[in-house]
Amino acid sequence: MSLLSFVKEAGEKLIDLLTPGNANAGEQLKEHIAKVGLGNPNVQATVEGDKVTLTGEVASQEEKEKIILAAGNIEGVGSVDDQMTVTGPAIAAARFVVVKKGDTLSAISLAVYGHANQYNKIFEANKPMLSHPDKIYPGQTLRIPE
């Protein structure tokens, strides 16, 4: 359970999600989570200002982290309050890194693992949100597995 910060100016544009008084924001966020390829998890979402709160149960730490990233990598979202619980076995949480201008997965891999050729590990850890290793953008937050 934690509050994670995101770059508000970066991310996918979802029309009306953060419009004050949007009674359907939680449902729109769940649809977005399903659309990026994470299925239909037992998660509820509420939106207040630029903060998204996620509650419910997920099967794994990996699923939890991917749902957090799917919610946080939306333009206008400044933070995600993670109140989800994991029902599966406990594993170490992944690190998160924010993509900077000029970054590539190889450069990030070199910085975190000491080897540029482990970029595919980062790519796989961020599927299905990433469709190609070259399709990252400044301000995007990525999972970095151990």
What does this structure look like?
There is one protein chain. Helix content is 29%, strand content 24%. By secondary structure, it is α+β, with helices and mostly antiparallel strands. It folds into two domains: 2-86, Histidine-containing Protein, Chain: A (2-Layer Sandwich), CATH 3.30.1340; 95-144, LysM domain (Membrane-bound Lytic Murein Transglycosylase D, Chain A, Roll). It has a four-stranded mixed beta sheet with strand order 1-4-3-2. The protein has a two-stranded antiparallel sheet with strand order 5-6. Strand 2 and strand 3 form a beta hairpin. Helix 1 packs across helix 2 (61-72) and helix 3 crosses helix 4. The mean pLDDT is 92.
Compact description:
The chain is an alpha+beta fold and 146 residues long. The protein has helices at residues 25-38, 61-72, 105-113, 119-125; strands spanning 2-5, 42-48, 51-58, 79-86, 95-98, 141-144.
Which percent range describes the beta-strand content?
15-25%
Global morphology: globular
Strand order of the largest sheet: 1-4-3-2
Given the helix and strand composition, which structural class is it? alpha+beta
CATH architecture of the largest domain: 2-Layer Sandwich
The count of β-strands is 6
Biggest sheet statistics: 4 strands, mixed
CATH class identity of the largest domain: Alpha Beta
Q: Round the mean pLDDT to the nearest integer and report it.
A: 92
N→C terminal distance: 20 Å
Poorly predicted tracts of residues: none
> Which fold name corresponds to the CATH topology of the largest domain?
Histidine-containing Protein, Chain: A
Number of alpha- plus pi-helical segments: 4
Series of H and E elements: EHEEHEEHHE
**How large, in whole angstroms, is the Cα Rg?**
15 Å
Write down the domain tally: 2
Helix amount: 25-40%
